[in-house]
């Protein structure tokens, strides 16, 4: 987007710095993620319940920091330093998993990774609000998401190659390399280019009402969206690891490569979806796009139960590119709509992330127990039921959030 302009606080800033940051942060996170679950099950011979326990405990402890981290990002001017520090700690955690892949070291490292992972999404969204005017926000957030997905494709392909040529364990050593590159991209954004008032949810021109934290509980659409996001992630989070484990059980030598294929298949779809969300969110509104994204998930969960063939499973995973792609691209925009002028944008992001993360963390343990006792098909159908409830709640209770200042009118509160 060559015509993309920033507020002229510092002409040294170039949008490609933010592009690179989104791309590289995806690389850092993508070199862990589902690869850890597959590694623990296939190489270390952990039970599904043990993997689910680690995922649930580390995830739930990480959730404690979500909202405080959002408040810190709202208040601090050292947003770049926060990202760099989080990258350094995440690299240390990945190295610890590589060096000591037994229960307690993995539990401690994974918990640390969950804690510092709270920083990236809200901090990048805050930087975006502080660097771009409101009229450019939908397209810029869509572009952020597109580069995030491009990074996921790149790291999944590279991780698959490393896992095939070397070992699944060697994949974790990609994290410190990507973390260093991500730190350099972060520091390439001049601190003076960031409007810190707008970065925490102020209107263009610096009009911020400095609302209390009670705004999180009195904004009904925010509560509805948080509930829907929780159910969406409860349903979505375990599906890819479950599919990866099914593929690994049948084709152990190709476990990492097949997991990479699943990730790449979805991410290649997410990239154009994110750009489309950025293009159309101001034209047709947020809710129609959200409904399309939420409707895909229950269908995908059911389709997983129809066949165990690798081609089928990877093909169904393409649908994740639509559902998760829409959710990831539009969530920062919906929260920006609801928190405009309150000065509580990043706190709200943290609160929603906490609630959706709780759903994702609990689902890891729940899915592991269900698989151990009833099988993969039952776990997928349970996820589909939760996704259907989320869709119904969105239809009934979630209003359009685009305000009258955008192309599509609609209430915010």
Describe this structure in words.
By secondary structure, the chain is mainly alpha-helical. The protein has a single domain, classed as MFS general substrate transporter like domains (Growth Hormone, Chain: A, Up-down Bundle), CATH 1.20.1250.20. The chain contains 17 helices and no strands. The longest helix has 30 residues. The N terminus and C terminus are likely disordered.
SSE blueprint:
Elements lengths: L14 H16 L2 H10 L5 H16 L2 H10 L3 H21 L3 H29 L5 H29 L8 H14 L8 H4 L15 H4 L1 H17 L2 H12 L4 H30 L2 H17 L6 H30 L5 H30 L1 H22 L16
Helix pairs in contact: 1-6, 1-7, 1-8, 2-12, 3-6, 3-16, 4-6, 4-16, 5-6, 5-8, 6-16, 7-13, 7-15, 11-16, 11-17, 12-13, 13-15, 14-15, 14-17, 16-17
Arithmetic mean pLDDT: 83
Number of H/I helices: 17
CATH topology: Growth Hormone, Chain: A
Gap between N and C termini: 32 Å
User: How is the main sheet built?
Assistant: none
Category by helix and strand content: mainly alpha
Got a strand count?
0
- Please tell me the total number of domains: 1
CATH architecture: Up-down Bundle
The SSE order reads HHHHHHHHHHHHHHHHH
CATH superfamily, please? Answer: MFS general substrate transporter like domains
Percentage of residues in helical conformation:
over 70%
> Could you tell me the radius of gyration in angstroms?
20 Å
């Amino acid at each position: 987007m060559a015509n993309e302009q920033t507020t002229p606080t510092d002409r040294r800033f170039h949008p490609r710095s933010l592009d690179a940051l989104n791309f590289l942060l995806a690389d850092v996170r993508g070199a862990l993620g589902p690869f850890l679950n597959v590694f623990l099950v296939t190489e270390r011979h952990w039970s599904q319940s043990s993997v689910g326990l680690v995922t649930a405990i580390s995830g739930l402890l990480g959730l404690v920091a979500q909202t405080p981290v959002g408040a810190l990002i709202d208040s601090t001017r050292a947003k770049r330093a926060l990202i760099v520090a989080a990258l350094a700690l995440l690299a240390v955690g990945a190295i610890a998993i590589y060096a000591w892949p037994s229960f307690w070291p993995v539990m401690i490292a994974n918990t640390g990774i969950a804690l510092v992972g709270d920083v990236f999404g809200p901090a990048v969204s805050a930087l975006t609000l502080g660097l771009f005017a409101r009229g450019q926000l939908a397209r810029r957030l869509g572009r952020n998401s597109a580069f995030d997905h491009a990074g996921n494709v790149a790291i999944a392909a590279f991780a698959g190659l490393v896992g095939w040529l070397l070992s699944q364990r060697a994949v974790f050593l990609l994290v410190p390399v990507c973390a260093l590159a991500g730190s350099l991209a972060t520091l390439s954004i001049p601190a003076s280019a960031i409007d810190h008032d707008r970065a925490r949810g102020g209107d263009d021109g610096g009009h911020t009402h400095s609302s209390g934290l009670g705004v999180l509980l009195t904004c009904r659409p925010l509560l509805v969206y948080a509930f829907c996001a929780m159910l969406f992630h409860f349903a979505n989070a375990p599906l890819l690891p479950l599919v990866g484990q099914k593929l690994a059980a049948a084709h152990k030598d190709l476990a990492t490569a097949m997991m990479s294929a699943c990730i790449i298949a979805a991410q290649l779809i997410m990239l154009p979806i994110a750009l489309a969300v950025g293009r159309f969110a101001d034209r047709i509104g947020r809710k129609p796009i959200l409904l399309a994204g939420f409707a895909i998930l229950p269908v995908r969960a059911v389709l997983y139960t129809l066949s165990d063939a690798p081609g089928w499973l990877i093909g169904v995973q393409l649908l994740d590119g639509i559902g998760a792609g829409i959710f990831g691209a539009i969530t920062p925009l919906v929260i920006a709509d609801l928190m405009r002028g309150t000065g509580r944008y990043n706190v709200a992001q943290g609160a929603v992330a906490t609630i959706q993360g709780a759903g994702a963390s609990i689902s890891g343990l729940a899915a592991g127990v269900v698989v151990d006792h009833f099988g993969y098909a039952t776990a997928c159908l349970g996820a589909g039921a939760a996704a259907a409830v989320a869709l119904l709640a969105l239809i009934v209770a979630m209003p359009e959030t685009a305000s009258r200042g955008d192309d599509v009118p609609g209430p915010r509160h």
